C-alpha cells in the first residue's frame, strides 16, 4: 500500500529567555479562511520530499530557514471542496531567535507567542493539538534521534 501525502503543516518555534515561542500567521483578506490564525501550511510539489516541502513553505510564508526540523505527526482531514481525504505531515521547525519575518502574500499579520497564547490564537483545533505535540517533543530531547530530519 502506498499513501501519498500532499500537504504539510509546520509549527515554527524560536528560543527565548524563558523557553519557547511559536509563530502564528493571520490569513489575508481575499484568501481562503480570511482572518484565521494558523501555522505554516502548504502543498507538497511533485517530486518534493515532505521535509523539503516543509522547509520551502516555511521560507515562502515567513522568510525563515530552520536550524532544526523535527517530524511530529500525521494528520488526516476531509477537504470539503474537493470531496477528498487528505493527509498532512506535521513538522516542528526551530528557527534563530532574532531572524526577521518576511511574510508571503497569503498573510497580513504575524505574532510570536508563548505556547499558551498560540494555543488560544490558532483558529483550528487540530493546529492546537499539533502545537502541543510539537512542544512536548521539543522538550523531550531523548527522542530527537529518530525525529530529527537532516537538512540539506
UniProtKB/TrEMBL annotation:
Pfam annotation, one family: NUDIX
GO MF: hydrolase activity
Domain Nudix hydrolase: 3-136
Alphabetic keyword roster: Hydrolase
PROSITE patterns xref list: NUDIX, NUDIX_BOX
PANTHER family assigned to the protein according to its UniProt record, in alphabetical order: ADP-RIBOSE PYROPHOSPHATASE, DIHYDRONEOPTERIN TRIPHOSPHATE DIPHOSPHATASE
Protein name listed in UniProt: NUDIX domain-containing protein
Organism of this sequence: Pseudogemmatithrix spongiicola
Amino acid at each position: 500500500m502506498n499513501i501519498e501525502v500532499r500537504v504539510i503543516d509546520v509549527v515554527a518555534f524560536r528560543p527565548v529567555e524563558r523557553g519557547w515561542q511559536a509563530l502564528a500567521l493571520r490569513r489575508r483578506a481575499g484568501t481562503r479562511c480570511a482572518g484565521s490564525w494558523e501555522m505554516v501550511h502548504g502543498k507538497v510539489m511533485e517530486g518534493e520530499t515532505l521535509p523539503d516541502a516543509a522547509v520551502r513553505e516555511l521560507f515562502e510564508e515567513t522568510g525563515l530557514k530552520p536550524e532544526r526540523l523535527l517530524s511530529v505527526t500525521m494528520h488526516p482531514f476531509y477537504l470539503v471542496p474537493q470531496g477528498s481525504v487528505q493527509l498532512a505531515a506535521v513538522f516542528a521547525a526551530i528557527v534563530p531567535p532574532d531572524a526577521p519575518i518576511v511574510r508571503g502574500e497569503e498573510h497580513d499579520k504575524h505574532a510570536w507567542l508563548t505556547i499558551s497564547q498560540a494555543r488560544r490564537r490558532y483558529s483550528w483545533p487540530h493546529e492546537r493539538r499539533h502545537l502541543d505535540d510539537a512542544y512536548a517533543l521539543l522538550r523531550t530531547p531523548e527522542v530527537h534521534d529518530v525525529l530529527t530530519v537532516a537538512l540539506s
